[in-house]
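Please decode residue identities from the backbone states below.
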């Protein structure tokens, strides 16, 4: 249907003399990053066709064959690199694009690795649960009507009192963050890099960071306390019944009290162990341990982390 409407084309019915593959967001890709791929086709007439997705063109990816090494490629035309830099370190992702309907066409490209991203490693405590709001009180019943007949007067009935609203529940406390250890090693070279490991809760994450533009933020904040539940509204007193005299209106119920917010959890102790050669680059590591102790820095010789 899309082909009939002119939104897409079939390459097996389209003359093509050449093709090229590019990464529109730049030539490099970082661990954990995604980058769209665009393939451009030139017809003998000079007309240019591009792939769908980031290329916003008419050529469907299902008409192409894409092979990627180190990086992964999905059906939507996007390359991705594993977040763990150890998997791709020292390798060059390579992409090959062919067209089954045009076996003479082929495009290849190497994808340089880059490490200048702003990474975040978050081990903060969980937020507390919000308190449940109190229930509203019920309104009082209206008084029964009496009689205003001067020959046979009778008073109206009094309205019933509204019931009180119930109190809101307290929010629960935020969770505590665990202790976090950061190890920072230096990799020398024409373009120095920093090897970083972050460990907490029996989990370990690795990062390879270019100090020229890259950074790592490590969070071990105490979790936010849960918000307090609101007290329920008191019910309205029922109106007095009409009569001679009119009945008295009931009293409004009292509003329930709001609950208390939960307390913030404790931040975790962050310990940074860094190699002396990495000391000039400590500024790219940003630490946050709200409601916790100050981070501790220790200098000692570290071998390569992998």
């Amino acid at each position: 249907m899309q082909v009939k409407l002119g939104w897409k084309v079939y390459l097996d019915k389209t003359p093509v003399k050449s093709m090229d593959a590019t990464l529109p967001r730049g030539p490099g890709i970082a661990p954990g990053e995604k980058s769209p791929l665009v393939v451009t086709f030139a017809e003998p007439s000079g007309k240019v066709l591009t792939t769908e997705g980031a290329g916003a063109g008419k050529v469907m990816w299902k008409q192409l064959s894409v092979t990627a090494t180190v990086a992964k490629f999905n059906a939507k035309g996007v390359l991705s690199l594993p977040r763990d830099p150890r998997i791709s370190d020292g390798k060059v992702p390579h992409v090959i694009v062919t067209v089954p309907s045009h076996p003479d066409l082929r495009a290849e490209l190497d994808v340089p690795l880059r490490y200048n991203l702003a990474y975040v490693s978050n081990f903060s405590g969980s937020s507390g649960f919000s308190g449940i709001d109190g229930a509203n009180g019920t309104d009082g019943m209206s008084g029964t009507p009496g009689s205003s007949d001067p020959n046979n007067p009778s008073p109206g009935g009094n309205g019933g009192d509204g019931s009180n609203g119930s109190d809101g529940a307290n929010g629960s406390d935020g969770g505590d963050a665990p202790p976090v250890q950061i190890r920072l090693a230096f990799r020398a070279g024409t373009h120095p890099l920093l090897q970083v490991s972050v460990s907490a809760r029996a989990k370990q994450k690795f990062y390879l960071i270019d100090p020229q533009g890259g950074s790592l933020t490590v969070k071990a904040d105490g979790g936010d306390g849960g918000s307090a539940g609101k007290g329920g509204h008191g019910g309205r007193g029922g109106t007095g019944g009409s009569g001679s005299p009119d009945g008295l209106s009931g009293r409004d119920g009292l509003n329930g009290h709001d609950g208390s917010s939960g307390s913030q959890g404790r931040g975790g102790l962050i310990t940074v162990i860094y190699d002396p050669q990495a000391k000039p680059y400590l500024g790219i590591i940003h630490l946050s341990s709200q409601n916790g102790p100050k981070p501790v820095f220790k200098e000692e010789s570290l071998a390569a982390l992998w």
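Observation: The two ends are 52 Å apart (CA to CA).
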